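A further point concerns the way the authors explain their paired sequence and structure data. Since the whole study asks how a given chain folds, the encoding of that fold should be made plain. A single example would do more here than another paragraph of explanation. An entry of this sort, consisting of the sequence and the corresponding backbone structure tokens, reads as follows:

_____
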Amino acid sequence: MPNCESAGLSANARFLCLIVFLTLISTSAIAQAPATAESPYYARNNTFSVFGAYSGDSSHILLGDAENRRLLDFGVAYGRNLFLNRIVNWQYNGEILPVALESDPVVLYTYNWTSPTVYTDSGTVVLTTPCVPSSGSISNTQNGKTYSYTYIFTCTRQWTIGEGISPVGFQWNFLPRNKLQPFIIGHGGCMYSTQPIPIPEAGFFNFTFDLGAGIELYRSKTRSVRTEYHYHHISNHNTANQNPGIDNGLFQVTYSFGR
């Protein structure tokens, strides 16, 4: 320790000596102070995510009746931690879908009439059920007149682009002290498409909700990857002439980061 009381030192020198002494004391105290304990939880206060989701088919899982629909979504999400303990991490989770693609089965039909007149009729129809290709010929007689034609049904698909938002959503991660965490997640929202889905008599605007579960793997305290499976429903809630609804099993992969 420096001797700041020496008689040979001037007042200014003694003041400078005191400043040096206090600096050494404070530096030593900082060096000896215990480091802040690292959080034992793999959890973030604010989470930003990007994801892709796909479903190759639809069926009557719960509410929807339109079959053989495909979904392809690309979106971003924001999450905010609401409650955290050693059992559960409860988070708000909202999604925006700038790209929401929906695909419907379409039959291309051709009728070639040979009797009583010769002409051809062709067109397309969006089906509620899966398309089955077929061909054949029909002939019958009514009131002494014969009606005969051949037909050809071929199948294709029609993709419709839309956008969606799910502002209401929650996620529950269990065992947040572990790097590998099971979770359940759910959302409610809406989507708008460039043409009516899943059939022309339905609407451009639809409501959506989903409920899913999966596994989240934390690569660090701030970054993670999720794989999940959702029950996903689309419906216009009878705001259009028809409302067949779509039920899909949706597979999703999500990359998340934040602090």
Q: What stands out?
A: The chain has a mean pLDDT of 90. Residues 46-103+159-258 form a domain with the Porin fold (CATH 2.40.160.20). Helices lie at 11-32. Residues 48 and 78 are 5 Å apart (CA to CA).
